[in-house]
Amino acid sequence: MPRLIDDLRANGKVQMPHWVAPRLERAWTEYARHIMALASDPALPVLLIDNVAEYFYSGTDQEYWDIGKDFPNIAPPFPAFWVEWRMVPKIHSRDGDTDLSGWLPHGARVGQYFRAVDPADVTGEGIPENTRWIYWCDMWTDYRRSGGVTADGPCGATWLCVDAEGRAIGNPWIQSYAEDRDAGLMKTIMAWYNPALFAISFLHCKNVQLVDHAMPAKLAKRYRERHSGLTPTAYKTLTIEPLKAILRKEGRSDQVGLAQAMHICRGHFRDYREGRGLFGKYHKLVWTPSIVRGTKGKGAPPPREIEVKV
C-alpha cells in the first residue's frame, strides 16, 4: 500500500491548518512550498513506525511523557528523514482508556519530516552552547478528507535542540503561523512527535532491527502507470518484538508499566580520529549505541560500536 509520503509527492494537494491566522496565510504558503520540496526528495529515508505507535499509545498505560527523560537518545539516525504512522483507534492510559474509533476515520495517517540542522547555520538567541544538532520538524495529518486533499499541513516548523549524546535540551518550540491565543493547541500538536522520538530512541538500542522494504514489482509498476512514472517509496520498519519480550520478562512491563520496566543505558560517541584509531586503522567518530535491559540490569548484551551517519 502506498505511504502517505507517496500520496503527497503524487498529489501535493494539502489543506492549510485551520489555526493559521489570515494575516499569515501568505507566509505559510511560501513556507509550505519550501518544506514540501524538501520532503519530496526521493533519496529521503522513510521510516514506517505503525508498530511503535501502536505500542506507544495502546501497549503502555503511560499518559505523560518527558522528552528529556523518556526519550534518552534522539540523536539523528540520518541527516534528514521522514517518519509516518497510522493513528490508533484506542489509547490505553492509567487515567482511563480513550476510544477514538467513533470519530477517527479508518486509515488516518500522520507524516513527519525531520532534518538535523547544524547550530552554526541557525541565527537566533537562546540556543544552548552544548547543542550538537537542532531538529527542524514538521507534520502532516491525513484525516481521509474528500475533494482530493491528501493531508492537512504542514502544521508549522517545530525546533528541538539535542546535545552530542542525544539528549533533548530544553523544550521544543513551534513557528505555527497561529495567533497567541492558540498556544495551548500548539503544545498539543508538538506532543504528536512523541511516537517518532520514541522510535528514534529505539534505533539506538540493541535488540531492535531496522528492516528495508519495497513495494512488490507488480504493484510498483501499476503505481507508476497511475502516477506519471513516479516510483513508490522504499521504506524501513523497526522490529521491536525482542525488546518487548525483554521488557515483559525482566521488567514486568505488563504489571508496572513501561516507564519502570525499561532502563536505557545511554549511548555515547567515541572519538578515534586521532592516535591509533579504532582497531588500529579506522580514524573516525563512532557511536556506541544504547542497550536495553530489564530494571534489574540482568542479561544485557555487551555494547557494540556502529557508525551513525550524520
N-to-C span: 30 Å
Kindly name the structural category.
alpha+beta
Q: Taking all residues together, what is the mean pLDDT?
A: 79
DSSP summary: helix tally: 10
Describe the structure in your own words.
This protein is α+β, with helices and mostly antiparallel strands. The chain has one domain (4-258). The protein is built from ten helices and 16 strands. Strand 9 and strand 10 form a beta hairpin. Helix 3 crosses helix 6 (194-203). The chain is globular.
Per-chain topology:
Elements (H helix, E strand, L loop, with lengths): L3 H7 L3 E2 L9 H15 L6 E3 L1 H9 L8 H4 L9 E7 L3 E2 L6 E2 L9 E9 L15 E10 L8 E2 L4 E6 L5 E8 L7 H8 L3 H10 L5 E5 L3 H10 L8 E5 L1 H9 L3 H4 L1 H4 L1 E3 L2 E4 L13 E4 L2 E3 L17
Parallel strand pairs: 1-8, 2-3, 2-12
Antiparallel strand pairs: 3-6, 4-5, 6-7, 7-9, 9-10, 11-12, 13-16, 14-15
Helix pairs in contact: 3-6
List the keywords.
alpha+beta, two-stranded parallel ribbon, single chain, 310 residues, 16 strands
Quick structural overview:
The protein has 310 residues and is of the alpha+beta class. The chain contains ten helices and 16 strands.
